[in-house]
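Long-time lurker. I teach an intro course on protein structure, and each term I like to show students one example going from raw sequence to a predicted 3D structure in token notation. This year I'd like something fresh instead of my usual example. Would anyone be willing to generate the tokens for the chain below so I can use it in lecture? Attribution to the forum is fine with me.
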Amino acid sequence: MATEHFSPALCTPAASRPYAKAGPGYGKRTAPDQHPPRTDDFMLLPERERYIAGYVDHLPDGAAMDIKSLAKSIPLYGQMAVGSALRALAVAGHLRHARCRVEERGQVRWVTRTFWSRTARDNEWWGAFLDSENDRAAQDATPPRAGAESRAPAPVTPAEPAAQPAAQPAAPVPVPAPLVPRQRTPEPTPAHPSPAFLALAHLGRIEPRLALSAADCTVLEPLAAQWFTRGVDTDYLTHALTSGLPARVDSPIGFVRRRLTDKIPPHLPVTPTPATPRTPTLRLMAECTECGTPGHPEALPDGLCRPCRTPDPDTTDKQAAGAHAEEDVHGLVAELRGMLKRP
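-- Reply from a regular --
Happy to contribute to a lecture. Here you go:
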């Protein structure tokens, strides 16, 4: 006699292979302040959502959480079922998609991050959490001040030994001076380098073909300082010097000197403008779980935009009209077949 299984949730099978790792910046990110795992987690969800939620909850941070990766790891459900389950989990308050701005080597790209919470959260909590993440991302992107660097202590000069009683000097013997050519000593790095010097010194780290020595930076510093007097910043200067490089640069100092001279920007008239509060750059935006439309958390309640949350009435009417037309076609075909059977 078969016995019925009354377990409220399906058991998530153990993974037979390592979890799929997402790319840098993507993947699962666990939200803070969650209750510890319990056996009755996700018990109020439907069967499919309980199963997928239990699997996602066991994934480590950084694991792939896109629909294709989850459908490949969970053979019980396909991509359509996984997508519908993720949407239901977002409505239930367990996950949110967010689009994050990442800047690397002067290039800006947007990556999608999935925040997961074992504890169901409401829209207000998710909005406050994404706002705090946005503030933290903006603080991490702010460069440190130049004065924050720690200065190295001055070298300690050893004390000179006590003078011994002078002995009777011997008769000096004339020694001819060696014929050694005078060596070129590099110019010392300034104690407080200017923004122009720092921009030239960092060229070699951004583009190895333009690596400059300390002496080269000192020679080119006046030319680079003229750029800063014309209202440009370090990013503008670096982009102008490193863009469109040839395959080989034989003389970095000559190449940089030529570009500093030929590509110097023009003087712009300075006009007084009223001081307006600067709008902060959003580095983290909520994203619709269904279609991926970015927006503010208040505009995406339950993680869904308005078109995905409320279906278009025109689309509903068209679907109903199509269903009625299909019924009319089937009725017409049945009537024609009946006429053919008549004697």
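Some talking points for your students: Confidence is low (pLDDT under 50) at residues 1-9, 12-16, 146-154, 278-282. The CA atoms of residues 262 and 278 lie 33 Å apart.
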